[in-house]
Amino acid sequence: MKLLVLLLLAFCALCGPSVASAQAQRVNRCTNAQGQTVFTDRSCDAVGATARMPAGNASVGNTGIYRAGCARRLSELTGQIRDAVSLQDVNRLSSIYLWGNVSNAAANQIIGRLESVVQRPLIDIAPVYPETDAPLPPPPPNPDATLVEAVEAAAPPAGRPRPIGLRLEQTLGSTATPARTVFGLRRQYGCFWITL
Q1: What is the largest CA-CA distance in the chain?
Q2: Is the pTM higher than 0.85?
């Protein structure tokens, strides 16, 4: 019995690294039709499952270098803000801030404000539109006409104004006390950026 164990140990010592690395390369992580994780040395299709990468663990702060693409649409920018706040990662939020012509003292203040934003729970992100000074339309000449019909008749339909900012609706800590932050929007280098 001892001789058999010694022979097995000697064989493992001679072949150990190459056999272990070959076996490690063949293990696939798959998801079956019931949503369960299956580990196999065959292809995922062979066991009736689909290939899947291991899910990354979301951690708070210090998540390493974050390289998001340039936000070319407003929806991409709001998604990046939502991700930064949900992960409480001030580095992600600062990566979409327009830092041009900001002094060191101002940058420290901005980082402090961004840090406070990512620490608060996020409720909503809403666009901010410019205020228009257009007067209300005159009352409708026809008593049976509605105000909406009068507006449509008086002026041609105008294009929807572009947002000039994003308003973050949050709460202070675990309370119901509302907190609001308004980021200005700038378009530069073909991308959307936030400013304070």
Answers
A1: 109
A2: no
